[in-house]
Amino acid sequence: MEQLREWVRNIVLVILFANFIQMLVPSGQMKSFVKVIIGFFIILVVLNPILSLVRYPQQIFNLDLFSIQRPSFDEVVEDGKSLKREQNNEIRGDYKQRLGKQIESFIEFNFQIESTVELALDQENELEKIEIRVQEDRITPVNVDLSQEDKEPKPISKEKKLKELIANFYALDLEQVEVEFD
Questions:
Q1: Does domain 97-139+153-181 match CATH 1.10.260.40?
Q2: Are 75 and 83 within 8 A, CB to CB?
Q3: Chain centre to alpha carbon of residue 150
Q4: With contact defined as beta carbons under 8 Å apart, do 22 and 42 qualify?
Q5: For residues 50, 51, 54 and 58, what is the CA-based torsion angle, rounded to 10 degrees?
Q6: Is this model's pTM higher than 0.85 or not?
Q7: Which residues make beta-bridge pairs with 87?
Q8: Residue ranges of the domains in the chain?
């Protein structure tokens, strides 16, 4: 009996609401569309209890928002860890690339030679080793000193100068910097 009373009450409320909406809509072409939509809505309200009596599944009319399967806490934590690893790898690669470009520019600025740089980083992303390959020009610069002094400076090789400069600039040991001239 309670279900019948609730059903009738719903029908009356929907019809009152439909009449109120029809009064708000201006006359014309839009009014006929609104009447059709309201008619479908009233039919749905009238048929809903009848369909439930026949044991028709109500999922057609009701959205079950709580049936979505949520991941477990462990799955969320594992996904977070894998995303962190991926992000750290991307950051590490970007860091190596930028640091390599910086060293190449530093060499070009100080020695006016083209080079390629390969880096090795440890677990804390600290420089472990720098490998520099230099394309040496065939033209060698000549310095002429016209002073009268008979000082005979020891010539320091380009390789040693480059090695010392890079090692000092990046606070590395000389063994951590390898220079190879082609």
A1: no
A2: no
A3: 64
A4: no
A5: -140
A6: no
A7: none
A8: 2-67, 97-139+153-181
